[in-house]
TrEMBL record:
Listed name of the protein: ABC-type nitrate/sulfonate/bicarbonate transport system, ATPase component
Organism annotation: Sanguibacter keddieii (strain ATCC 51767 / DSM 10542 / NCFB 3025 / ST-74)
InterPro entries per the UniProt record, alphabetical: AAA+_ATPase, ABC_transporter-like_ATP-bd, ABC_transporter-like_CS, ABC_transporter_ATP-bind, P-loop_NTPase
Alphabetized UniProt keyword annotations: ATP-binding, Nucleotide-binding, Transport
Keyword Phosphoprotein: no
Gene3D superfamilies: P-loop containing nucleotide triphosphate hydrolases (3.40.50.300)
Compositionally biased intervals (Low complexity): 22-45
UniProt xrefs under PANTHER family: ABC TRANSPORTER ATP-BINDING PROTEIN (PTHR42788:SF20), TAURINE IMPORT ATP-BINDING PROTEIN-RELATED (PTHR42788)
Length: 330
């Protein structure tokens, strides 16, 4: 959409720091819709509701307006990506949703409750660019950490971790340590950990940003399958247009500082082939993913996101063929 107030969405944070009173948020996750569409329901029907939020850092000459009057809504189960030039406030927005930071003005609700309450009751999981695993703990011990902290019993922990490791394809690596895994495997452990407490919302900040292209595409497909299985909503920060389009129901395009929502793009890809009921093997899923990436609807959505991003350049008299700083065109 061109009027941010008319559509909702979600996002993820840029660093791994957590407030002192947090016992590890639960996990990572989905998409956005307009506040006009969600306004037919109560605010509790939205996974995320950001209302007229601004965030200003510093004072006087060093003041930075990171977000200016941002409003968006993410529906339960929706996958929403945030994309925009470097410094436009994507991570700041994600951090506000995660209650890792507070808005200067405006409100943030998660499932109809203040973000702080949602964090304390572990309604969301988080995954960042750095996996952030504890090197002295095995894969199993890393994944079960949030469950241990929340007092889940031993038997239930074991059962849950077995399921999660299965889900991310790491059942055979439960007793390995992080430094015995590839970067992609470490990131899958982090995603499993983020899902430990069955969050209804996943907040992800460039979780695949440090991975090679092949691993990245494979994990994108895996993430879609995991989301189809868990039905979690996801707010996903990325610099990659194709990644945003491949994963999302909705792509939220942000403008350069002060960060505002410039446009919301409905992607409209048919991802039924990646749904759990039809997935037969990882290779088959990857093949479905490859088909999706060459589909007309995919190419069309990539073009629409690119045009939305380039609007800034056009307005500044720049070349429409050049990407804004910090946006990966691959
Ligand atoms: N704690 C802070 N103190 C001061 N300024 C900050 C702080 N956090 C973020 N900013 C500023 O707010 C603006 C938005 O930052 P943010 O990290 O949200 O952008 P981003 O879109 O995620 O960038 P990138 O794509 O490069 O990761 C930037 O100008 C940044 O310098």
């Amino acid at each position: 959409m061109t009027q941010p107030e008319a559509r909702p969405t979600s996002v993820a944070p840029a660093d791994t720091s957590l407030p002192a009173d947090s016992a590890l948020p639960a996990g990572t996750a989905p998409s956005a819709s307009s506040s006009s569409s969600s306004s037919t329901t109560t605010s509790t029907a939205s996974a995320v509701r950001v209302d007229s939020v601004s965030r200003v850092f510093g004072r006087g000459t060093s003041q930075v307006v990171a977000l200016d009057d941002v409003s968006l809504t993410v529906a339960p189960g929706e996958f929403v990506s945030l994309i925009g030039p470097s410094g436009c406030g994507k991570s700041t927005l994600l951090r506000l949703v995660a209650d890792l930071d507070q808005p200067t003005s405006g409100t943030v609700e998660v499932f109809g409750r203040p973000a702080r309450q949602a964090r304390l009751s572990r309604e969301y999981g988080i995954a960042f660019q750095q996996a952030g695993l504890l090197p002295w703990r095995t894969v199993r011990a890393n994944v079960e950490l949030p469950l241990t902290l929340s007092g889940t019993g031993r038997g239930a922990r074991r059962e849950r971790v077995d399921h999660l490791l299965d889900l991310v394809g790491l059942a055979d690596f439960a007793d390995r340590f992080p430094d015995q895994l590839s970067g992609g495997m470490q990131q899958r452990v982090a995603i499993a950990r983020s899902l430990a407490e069955e969050p209804s919302l996943l907040l992800m900040d460039e979780p695949f940003g440090a991975l090679d292209e092949m691993t990245r595409e494979h994990l994108q497909t895996q993430l879609l399958r995991i989301c189809a299985e868990t039905r979690a909503a996801v707010v996903f920060v990325t610099h990659s247009i194709p990644e945003a389009v491949f994963l999302s129901d909705t792509v939220v395009v942000m403008s350069p500082r002060p960060g505002r929502i410039r446009e919301i793009v409905d992607v409209g890809l048919d991802r039924a082939g990646i749904a759990p009921a039809t997935a037969v093997s990882t290779a088959a899923e990857d093949a479905v993913g490859d088909d999706l990436r060459t589909a007309d609807a995919f190419v069309d959505a990539v073009a629409r996101v690119r045009t939305a991003l380039h609007g800034d350049l056009a307005a500044a008299g720049g070349s429409a063929t050049r990407a804004p700083a910090g946006v990966d065109q691959r």
